[in-house]
Amino acid sequence: MEKARKLEFKTLSDFRNYNTTFASPGLVAEVKEDNSKYMFSSKREWNKLEKGKGKLENFEMSNFEINQQVYSQMNSHVPSSKDAEIINDFYKKENASFYMLLCTTRKIPYFTLLAHKENLLNSSLGQMVIECLSSIGEVIAIERVNNALEIWMWESDTKESNLYILFNYSEGVEYFS
After folding, report:
1. 173, 98 in Cβ contact below 8 A?
2. What is the mean pLDDT of residues 111-124?
3. pTM
4. What b/e string do you get for 102-141 counting C-beta neighbours within 10 Å, with b at 16 or more?
5. Region class of 137: left (phi > 0), else alpha (psi between -120 and 50), else beta
6. Of 48, 71, 89, 110, which is most buried, counting CB atoms within 10 Å of its CB?
7. Where is pLDDT greater, at 143 or 57?
C-alpha cells in the first residue's frame, strides 16, 4: 500500500496559504511553529489530528494509523465479482490447504481458518471469503501485498475501519493422530 505523503510548514501562515488543488485524502501536514498536525480529508478540508480531548505533543502516526484514517473516510463499495476474482487469483497462486483471515487491531482480535477440500472449486474461495466479510461489515478495498491480501473493512459493530489479512496458513496447522 502506498505511504501517505507528509508536508512540513514553518509557520501556520505558510500552512494556511498552501494550495490544496492537488492535495489528496490522507495527506498529512505538520506545522513546526506550534507542533500541530493536520490530515486532508475526502471532504477537501484539513482536520487537526488530536487524540482524546487534549493536544498531544510530538504526536506521531504509524502507516497503519494513517491508512486507517484514510480508509475510514472512504465510501465502502458493494462487493463485486472483481473482489472474488482477486481472492481467487490469490488462491490459485498460493495453492494452499489452509488460509487464515485475521484482524489483530480490533479490541477483540478476529480470525477465521479456511480449509481447502479436494473437491472445492477454485472459484469457491472468493465467494466464501466475501460472504464471511459481509457478516463483519462492508469491504472498502482489497489489495495483494506480497504473499497476502490486505482487506480494509468498515465494521458494522465498531463503526470503524480495520485491516484484515488473508494469508496462507498451511504451515500453522499441525496434524496428529
Report:
1. yes
2. 71
3. 0.60
4. bbeeeeeeeebebebeeeeeeeebbbbbbeebeebbbbbb
5. left
6. 71
7. 143
Q: Are 58 and 65 in contact (CB under 8 A)?
A: no
Q: What is the largest CA-CA distance in the chain?
A: 71
Q: What cell does 143 get?
A: 489489495
Q: What is the DSSP string of the chain?
A: -PPPPEEEESSHHHHHT---TT--TT-EEEETTTTEEEEE-TTSSEEE---SSSPPTT----HHHHHHHHHHHSPP----HHHHHHHHHHHHHH--SEEEEEE-SSSS-EEEEEE--TT--TTHHHHHHHHHHHTTEEEEEEEEETTEEEEEEEETTT-SEEEEEEEE-GGG-----
pLDDT tens digit string along 4-55? 467 889 998 998 898 888 777 778 888 999 888 888 876 778 888 875 544 4
